[in-house]
Specification:
The chain is of the alpha+beta class and 226 residues long. The chain has one domain. The strands form two sheets. The protein has a three-stranded antiparallel β-sheet, with helices on one face. Strand 1 and strand 2 form a beta hairpin. It starts with a helix and ends in a 5-residue tail after the last strand.
């Protein structure tokens, strides 16, 4: 015969209260401005600093916008010269010098515009079709090759199976139904000598058009240029 104590132990735990699901009903949001504490400023020092900061930031935004426009215009001029100057050459420098003439008491100087081996991200399928139309399969095969990356979201894999997943990735994806944990992406990789080879493989016009599909990252150095 079971005792009352045993019955008590076997009694189910009370269910936790269910959260209310409001469905499509709109929940009321608090309106009005948040009341922040105000910094005591009897001498007006903080207010003057805040005003100056706001003014400087406004000026900075205007300066940055003007700089961005000027940099874009300079990049365009340099790129046009670059494709023409190095067309057909096997040895290529990565930078172009832009001379700044002297003006008044300011001596002549220069800046360097660099067209390195880094390129902006682009849609690979659109790039492939556009590049092949531009240069043909043979030139494309000389300058580019197929590649791929695989991203694994470890949080989608049970902790006690993670090592097993790493040890046998291909079989494990099917066996543990972890397809969502793997993100496979096709890529295209340029040849190791692409920066130089493009000038002998492609014409000036082809390089200019390719740069629209596969933009070179351009940097402009203004400090420390002798």
């Amino acid at each position: 015969m079971r005792t009352n104590a045993a019955k008590k132990l076997e009694a189910p735990a009370p269910a936790s209260p269910a959260r209310i699901n409001f469905g499509t009903l709109k929940t009321k949001k608090t309106n009005g401005k948040t009341a922040y504490p105000v910094l005591p400023d009897e001498l007006g020092t903080a207010g003057k600093l805040a005003k100056e900061i706001r003014k400087l930031r406004g000026e900075l935004q205007s300066i940055e916008a003007a700089e961005e426009t000027n940099c874009a215009d300079l990049r365009q001029l340099v790129e046009q010269f670059y494709w023409h100057h190095y067309s057909g050459r096997a040895s290529v420098e990565s930078s172009v010098e832009v001379a700044i003439p002297s003006e008044g008491k300011e001596p002549a100087s220069r800046v360097l515009v660099s067209l390195g081996s880094r390129f902006k991200k682009t849609d690979m399928e659109a790039f492939r079709s556009g590049a092949v139309r531009l240069m043909g399969e043979e030139k494309f095969g000389r300058l580019f090759k197929d590649g791929f990356t695989v991203k694994i979201d470890g949080e989608q894999i049970p902790v006690d199976r993670q090592q097993e997943f790493v040890d046998g990735l291909n079989d494990l994806c099917v066996r543990l139904n972890c397809d969502n944990a793997v993100d496979a992406q096709a890529t295209i990789v340029h040849a190791t000598d692409f920066k130089d080879a493009r000038h002998t493989v492609l014409t000036e016009e082809e390089n200019s058009e390719l740069n629209k599909l596969y933009p070179t990252i351009v940097s402009i150095k203004t400090e420390g240029v002798a």
